[in-house]
Structures are given as C-alpha cells and as structure tokens.
Specification:
This protein is α+β, with helices and mostly antiparallel strands. The chain is built from 26 helices and 24 strands. The chain has 5 domains: 120 residues, no CATH class; 186 residues, no CATH class; 99 residues, no CATH class; 104 residues, Cytochrome Bc1 Complex, Chain D, domain 2 (Orthogonal Bundle), CATH 1.10.760; 228 residues, Beta-galactosidase, Chain A, domain 5 (Distorted Sandwich). The chain has an 8-stranded mixed beta sheet, with no helix packed on it. Strands 14-15-16-17-24-21-20-19 form an 8-stranded antiparallel beta sheet. A 4-stranded antiparallel beta sheet has the order 13-18-23-22, with no helix packed on it. A hairpin with a 5-residue loop joins β22 and β23.
C-alpha cells in the first residue's frame, strides 16, 4: 500500500491505518484538514507556503507567507546526533514521518542512496564543530520539564512523548518520538532556548524560556536517550563529494550556505499542474514530500485557480493557520483550544474562571489593541496576563511583522474621539476618574491590579496598562457592555441607558465618566493610587540569609530587584538593562505594601546611585559614545527608543537562588551568556560587595564593560573612586575617558576565552 494512493473520509482513520501498515506519514501542517474555516484552495495556499514551493518555483515571492527558508545548517554538526543526521538524510520520512523535508533521492538505488547520504552527512558535519555546548553543562530536571511541557503551550502542537505514537496520531498532534535520537540534552536545550536563531522561518516559536527552563524541558524530552550509531569518520574526499551533492540536489533552494551556488531554475508556479512532478502519486526525479491525497488535491486546486491578491482578512486567516495560532486562539468563527488542550491550561488566578486560563480571543483584536502593544506581545514577550500559564510564543518579526497592521486594517469599530479637555478642567476629570476606579466609585480595584498593587482577592489585568494597550474605539463599547465582547465575563454593566450608578460624579453621564477614567489612566505612573488599594508602607528586614524583593524603584527602574544581606550591605539590580544600579549600607528597603509582589521599593538608607545604562558593548565600538538609556520627561513623555536594551543585544533570562538565598542573574549580550552575582566581603571595618561576572563565549573574543560613571579619579593601580564609591578592578584592562555631561567613564576591556571566563569587581560604599 503506497502513500497517498487513497483518501478516506475520516482523517483519524487514515492516521490509524498509517500506523498499522507502517506507512510514511504526510508532512504535518496543523489546522488545514477538517476545519470549515479554510476552503480547499485556501488549504492549498497554506501548504504551498509551508512546503516552501516558492523557493524553487517563481510566482509567490510577494506573498509574505511564502518566504520560508529551511533551518540554518552552519552548525548542524554541533546540534544534531550524527547517527540521526545520517538516518534522516537517507530517508527523511522514515526518520521523522511528519517532516516537511522532501526525499531528494527517490530515483537512486539503495546503494547510491546510502553513499549519497553518507557524503552529505560528512559535508554537513564539517560545517560546525561537533558537540561543543559549554554553556549548557548543568543538568536539567525532568519533572519540572514535564510541567513546563504541559502548561506553557507545547501541547498546542505536540503530544507528550510519554503518550506514544498511537496517542499522537489520534490527537492529530506533531510527534516527538524522534527527538531523543536527534538531540542530546545540551543541544536540545540550546535550540529550545532560542529556536529562531537556528530556524528563522521555522514554526517552532520562542517561548521565552529561561536557561534553566530550557534545560528542564530538554531533560524531559530526551530522558532515556540512546544515541544513534555513529557514522564513519568524516574524510576530506567525502566532504567534497557531499558539497557537490548539496548543490546538485538543489538543497541550496531552501538552505543558503556561504559559497554555494544559487538554486537552479524550475518551472514557474503558473506552469505547475496537479498530479505531475512533486504532486504525482509516485514522484520520480523530483522532491517527494510524501503528500497525502488531501494535500495533493488542495495544492492542485490552488494551482488550478491561479495566484491572486489576498484580501487582508484572508491573509490573516492563512497566517493564523500556518503558524497554528488557532490552536490556542479563536477568531470570529474559527480556531480555539481543543477540549484536551483546555484541560492543560492553568492559571494562578482560578477565581477569574476560564478567562483567567485561556488565551484571549483574536476577534476584533485590531480594534481592541494598539499596534505598538500587539508588536510588544508578538515579538518582545510582553504580557498583560501574568496569571495565564500558557505563554504567548514569538515567531519573530521576520515571519509575522505584517500581521499587526493587517489586524488594524481589518478590525474596525465606530470611532470614539474624546473631546479635548481644557487645561483648567483636567484636574477635575482626573479626580473623577480616580474616584470612579476606587472603592468609593465603581470599585474596579476589587478585581483588578493597579500599578502592581492589589486590593481584593482577584488579580485581574493591571488597570494602569489599559491606556498603553487599548484603543478608545474598543474601550468605550466594552465598558458599556462587557459581555457582548467577552461572553461569560463576570464584569458587570455599570452604565445603563447612558446613566452611571454614581450620579454625584459628573452628573452620572456615562460618556463623561468613561472619558474621565480614560483620562485618569492616561497619566500612567503619575496616576494617583485609587482608594481601596492598601499602601501602608512596609519595612523589610534581612534575617540570617539573603533577601530578594522585586518591583518598581527610583533606583532600579521599572523591573527593579533589590538584594539584601545580613552583613548590612545591599544592592539593586535593573533587570531591564542588566545594570547593578544602586548600593547602600544599613537597613534594607521600604515597600509600598506587605508581601512579595510587583510593588514599589526604595532603600531605607541613603544609596549610591550607579548608572542604569546597559553596561556592555562590542570591542569594535571602542572610542564611540556609549549608548545610554533614553530618559523621558513630563514635556516629552514618549520613549524615543522603547527597544533600547533589545537593540543592543540584551536579553534578560531570569535568576536563580543558591542555598543562602543569593541570586545569580542570567542575561545575554548577543552570543555571550552572562551570569552575574554579588556577595558581601567583610575586611575589618570595610564592607565590600564583590561582583562576579561569568561570561560564556562561543569563541575567543573581547568585550567592553562600562563599570562606573561620574566624577572618577584613579587612586592607584586598579582602584578608582568617586566621592561616593570606591571600585577595585581585579580583572581586565581599565581606562578612563570623558563621558556626557562632564562625567568620566571607566571602560574595561575584558578578554574572553572560548567557554567560560570570570571577572571580579569590589564595590565599597564610602558613605
């Protein structure tokens, strides 16, 4: 029985039969079969993009969903098990039955296929040093990995490996049974940590895993791994033969490699016909994708009707299907999580019901959310719902950068344009909004967080983010009738027939009250805390182990982290930029309210304020002005560079605590992985904070580190001081140079070896 020779009506039946008869599975493209949202032609259009047809056939280059490339093969020898690589090249469908990689050697004899695969394997293994992942040495935790797999969103596309092939096929989910043979734990952890680095066009998204989480998830997926038998040792003759084959088989059509010739021309898309070439039931001399009968018919229909311009809503539907967004999100009449997936979706706020567990609807999302916020959520990992355990994955701006504008174009509601508020009336409107939000008004704070602060038992969406997130065109009709936009929501209707429940506020006029709330929220961090939010002011003490408190702070920014030690020396870390931003002695911090949470903290003693700018730059930037954190003022409240840390290559990866509660902060600078931790060092009456930077580099290199800014003087060799701080340099090559606003900058060039390098700095507060 051959692949694609029949098409039974029931998809589950064909999948079951494929297992029983040990047939090769068709390439897995989620959401195209058995869904009423796509016509046969639309399903074919999705397949044409996902199978990368336009890499060989001209005609779809203007379609952003057809610009798909294969994985980066530059370091494939480091990432993949060599035995698996050989097996996959010999017969992709046997090694991974649902792969979108075609069989390119179908016309060869068994002996020719074996020799060609061996040569290709040798060539690809020569592209990167094998098994060199020093930054992933630490062991993962399989139990934690299982929880991550079940909760963050993996189950939207994959069945758990423990469920076996039968369960995977029954569920219609992507199989992971090949993963343990394909990767070892370090290489899989590296891929899971940043999948888009290897597969820029890939459909495996970035879930913003920390290094620890990536290790745990990899440990769960490869537990019990048995490596494939290693192929023969690679020799120069085979490498050259493989390089030639790589070009002859037209691998360069999908996998670009430096120095390799461009792909050979093929028939234009308009000249393709169903049941011929790659669409034949038994392809010969052309790439064999192992297409199912449905897939061949769908592609044939798309080709027969010819290319056309895609209306915006159709482009949205195709994109949401191609990237399987509809596995978690519903939009209008299509998509949404399955019953099984819903059961795995968890929340830290169970009282919010399903709205606190499930990802939000995408219906009218372009009218609801501002394009800037959609970009932050899709590409920068921002979230307004921290209580939802399922994470919003990032497929990269390169793949879906066109989608926010399409949402805004398609999703329209009647325009709401609030009238300009005269300057003399702004205080009155702000006060009205302030009262309405608090417990003396509509009591919004009973169910919502406000600026990270909690009043009631619920911790719903932070109200203060509303102005940055929402369009007034959606805000006003939603507030007037929440259930119309989110059926089943517990939020009540506060205005009926144009009148508000509180007639003492703006005469109860619904339009005026909504305008007042919107105006009040527009003040952002400057909005006064509403009534009902407890803010008693709590002093945190440090006992016999280190104490960590996170929150907003004047000394550490929006994502501040304070660390206190029993020795009486403390510091603050700005997670937004990776900067050690303040140092002080004496008492620890005062917070805005009791408990651990995203509140406000400030030192209880006078602190030494350090720079909050990102502290690293490539060595080739030597002599150039240091890029500083943009500052906003009341006159210029808009951040001119909201992606400042990201544009410099910075990415915060969380922190871990040792047995004494001391945190190690993990972040990245380009390809460099940094572990940053500080501990007290007591010498007689001198209290020092010793900061250690462990930097993992893939190659020998150098990097610039700006250690100090201010009125700096060199006291003696390796020791520099400002009026408030003394810094001892134990490693690196320091030099002073003029900075901005009359300040001096201490720039240290750190020489990195391949693997881990360690640098130590001693900070002493002089007051």
């Amino acid at each position: 029985m051959k692949r694609g020779s029949f098409r039974p009506a029931c998809c589950c039946f064909i999948l079951w039969l494929a297992l029983v008869c040990k047939l090769d599975a068709a390439p897995k493209v989620h959401g195209i079969e058995g869904t009423p949202s796509l016509s046969l032609k639309e399903a074919g259009e999705v397949l044409v993009g996902e199978l990368q047809c336009s890499n060989c056939h001209e005609g779809e280059r203007d379609d952003p969903l057809a610009r798909k490339r294969g994985p980066n093969l530059r370091e494939v020898g480091r990432r993949l098990d060599p035995g698996y690589l050989l097996e996959f090249l010999t017969n992709p469908h046997d090694a991974h039955g649902e792969t979108k990689m075609p069989d390119l050697m179908g016309s060869m004899s068994a002996g020719q296929r074996k020799d060609s695969a061996s040569a290709l394997s040798a060539f690809l293994r020569s592209l990167g040093k094998e098994k060199s992942f020093p930054q992933w040495e630490e062991q993962g935790n399989s139990k934690r990995g299982k929880v991550l797999f079940e909760e963050v969103g993996c189950m939207a596309c994959h069945a758990a490996p423990s469920e076996g092939p039968a369960r995977e096929s029954e569920a219609g989910l992507g199989s992971l049974v090949h993963v343990a043979g394909k990767y070892d734990r370090p290489s899989l952890a590296g891929f899971l940590h940043e999948p888009l680095r290897v597969r820029k066009s890939g459909r495996m998204p970035d879930f913003h895993l920390t290094r620890s989480e990536a290790n745990d998830l990899a440990e769960y997926l490869v537990r019990g791994r048995q490596a494939k038998i290693d192929p023969p040792k690679i020799v120069a003759e085979k490498i050259e033969k493989g390089r030639v084959l790589f070009g002859q088989l037209n691998c360069v059509a999908c996998h670009s490699l430096e120095g390799m010739p461009a792909s050979k021309p093929a028939l234009p898309m308009k000249n393709l016909r169903k049941d011929r070439g790659c669409l034949s039931e038994k392809p010969q001399g052309v790439p064999d994708y192992g297409l199912s009968g449905f897939q061949r018919k769908a592609i044939g229909q798309a080709l027969a009707e010819g290319p056309e311009s895609y209306p915006p809503e159709r482009m949205i539907k195709r994109a949401l299907t191609a990237f399987n967004c509809i596995a978690c999100h519903e939009r209008d009449d299509y998509g949404g999580p399955s019953v099984k997936l819903k059961s795995s979706m968890k929340s830290s706020q169970e009282g919010l019901g399903d709205h606190g567990r499930f990802p939000p609807s995408l219906s009218l999302v372009g009218a609801k959310l501002k394009p800037g916020w959609i970009n932050k959520v899709m590409f920068d990992g921002d979230s307004a719902r921290p209580y939802v355990h399922t994470r919003m994955p990032s497929f990269g701006e390169q793949n879906l950068g066109f989608l926010p504008a399409l949402f805004s174009q398609v999703d329209q509601l009647p325009e709401v344009k609030f009238p300009e508020i005269p300057r003399k009336k702004r205080g009155e409107m702000r006060s009205a909004g302030h009262k309405l939000v608090g417990d003396k008004g509509l009591n919004c704070v009973a169910c919502h967080v406000f600026n990270g602060k909690v009043a009631g038992g619920f911790k719903g969406l932070d109200l203060l983010a509303s102005y940055d997130r929402l369009n007034p065109d959606w805000f006003v009709p939603f507030m007037l009738n929440p259930a119309k936009f989110r059926p089943g929501i517990v939020m009540p209707i506060y205005w009926s027939n144009g009148k508000g429940a509180h007639e003492d506020i703006l005469d109860g006029n619904a339009s005026a009250q909504l305008h007042a709330i919107w105006h009040y929220l527009s003040y952002g961090q400057g909005a006064p805390t509403p009534s009902g939010i407890g803010n008693p002011g709590t002093n945190l003490e440090v006992a016999d182990r280190a104490r960590v408190y996170r929150g907003r702070s004047r000394v550490a920014g929006y994502r501040g982290i304070s660390v206190g030690f029993p020795e009486g020396i403390h510091y603050a870390f700005n997670a937004e930029t990776g900067a050690l931003s303040a140092l002080w002695k004496g008492e620890f911090v005062s917070v805005g309210w009791g408990g651990q949470g995203a509140g406000n903290f400030n030192p209880r003693s006078r602190s030494v304020q350090l720079s909050q700018d990102f502290a690293f730059q490539p060595v080739n930037q030597r002599g150039k002005p240091w890029p500083i954190l943009p500052k906003m003022t009341k006159e210029n409240p808009v951040n001119p560079d909201p992606l400042y840390p990201k544009n410099l290559g910075y990415r915060f990866r969380g922190y871990s605590l040792d047995d004494h509660g001391v945190p190690t902060f993990s972040y990245e600078f380009g390809e460099l992985a940094v572990e940053d931790f500080s501990r007290p060092q007591t010498r007689a009456e001198v209290h020092l904070l010793r900061r250690t930077l462990r930097i993992t580099s893939p190659a020998q290199d150098s990097v610039l580190f700006r250690a100090l800014v201010g009125k700096i003087e060199r006291e003696k060799e390796g020791i520099f001081a400002t009026p408030e701080l003394r810094l001892k340099i134990l490693d690196g090559q320091p030099r002073l140079r003029e900075g901005r606003e009359g300040n001096v900058e201490l720039i240290i060039e750190l020489s990195l070896k391949k693997g881990k390098s360690e640098f130590v700095f001693d900070y002493e507060a002089l007051r």
